[in-house]
Amino acid sequence: MGPAHRAHRCRLKPSYPWEPLHPKGVFGLFSGQAANKTSLIAPEAALPGRPTPIATAERHVVLGTALKAPLSTSQQEALFGCGCFWGAEKGFWRLPGVVSTAVGYAGGYTANPSYEEVCSGRTGHTEVVRVVWDVNAIDFSDLLKLFWECHDPTQGMGQGNDRGSQYRSAIYSDDPALIAQAQASRDHYQGQLKEAGLSAITTEIASGKPFYFAETHHQQYLARPGARPYCSAQPSGVSLGDFVGANYKLAAPIWSHYDWTISHCILRGDNSPILGA
Q1: Residue 130 belongs to what H/E stretch?
Q2: Which residues pair with 7 in a beta bridge?
Q3: What is this structure's pTM?
Q4: Rg (CA), the chain
Q5: Reported confidence tier of residue 232, pLDDT bands at 50, 70, 90
Q6: Residue 4 and residue 41: Cα distance in Å, rounded?
Q7: Exposure on the CB side of residue 32, measured as CA atoms within 13 A
Q8: Any catalytic annotation for residue 84?
Q9: What average pLDDT does range 191-195 have in this prediction?
Q10: In the chain, what are the domain boundaries?
Q11: Options 84, 119, 150, 265, the catalytic residue
Q12: Fewer beta carbons within 10 Å, N or C terminal of the chain?
């Protein structure tokens, strides 16, 4: 039984012989320690975690790049939380100019958490995708376009069928310029959503949020043998327009690979990177 077959999500789904029949099979460790997963836990109530990082993969399954390589002078990084990190990561790794992606946990209090701990709601973390990109090939605004369009950023503590603080929408970066660009894109997109009759954005945009790598079998999960195609993201169908500070570099044909009118278009797409146009 390979690790990909042992991967599971924090929700009720059709059972397989290699999966728990019920979430209690995952959360038995936390019995008597219930948390309200629709609100953030207080720091003093969070699980303590551990000093040693959780074991994870070394290289990207699709791109072949090192997941923990230091940034070069032409690279930047940011963290994106947009619901279940399986489908979100695939959306990002396909973009031209993306050097590497990795899934993990951020935004909370528990050091080096496990997947089960994050699912318990007692770490304060949300599932995120760490994206490293080449600034000469793709701009942060291109990544923001995918981020805002690939999920519904108005759903608070959850996304689609996935409910809990670990599925909340977020953008984290330690670069003030990137934070400012993310905020400008949010403000612009909020106006677009309002015109479409949609609710207020609940996305958290912040700095100083350490990233903790998720376990090996979650990295590039949808490209691994035996992976179950799952994604509960619910795109609004509203395309991000030109906002203050936008500097889109990707050509229009690239975005034809992301047709949000098609249900689960990320899952239906190929795993390989999209060729530049």
Answers
A1: strand 126-134
A2: none
A3: 0.89
A4: 18
A5: confident
A6: 30
A7: 1
A8: yes
A9: 98
A10: 73-268
A11: 84
A12: N
